[in-house]
Amino acid sequence: MSEEPAxxxxxxxxxxxxxKSDVPDQACCQEMHNNLRNSDLYLGYNKRxxxxxxxxxxxxxxxxxxxxxxxxCGKLLPGSLREKLGDILFDELCLDDFFDDPNMPNEFKTDExxxxxxx
Length: 119
Ligand SMILES: [Zn+2]
Description:
The chain is an alpha+beta fold and 119 residues long. It contains three helices and four strands, in the order βαβββαα. The protein has helices at residues 30-38, 82-92, 112-116; strands at residues 10-11, 44-46, 51-55, 64-66.
């Protein structure tokens, strides 16, 4: 068995301009909602990509580990929309920057884009 972390679930910190946590409109349970809102734990939510994550210690290279299940209630969390967002930004809108393209419509800077599409 490998000691390496599951690379598919890890996003390196340099991919994000800043690592901050949002609070989802609806969480799977009250514990998740409270812990995201209180930010006492190393736990985060990215509303733009719909990703729940645990940040890596900075001396371990930074980055985040994406959560698949809620640690409190055990429910399967909604999947990441990072790939879908990239498809839209690069293939459909022909933008150059995932985070900060001057031509990016405002809906793609928040969770508006995936809510509007019923994802
Ligand atoms: Zn939960």
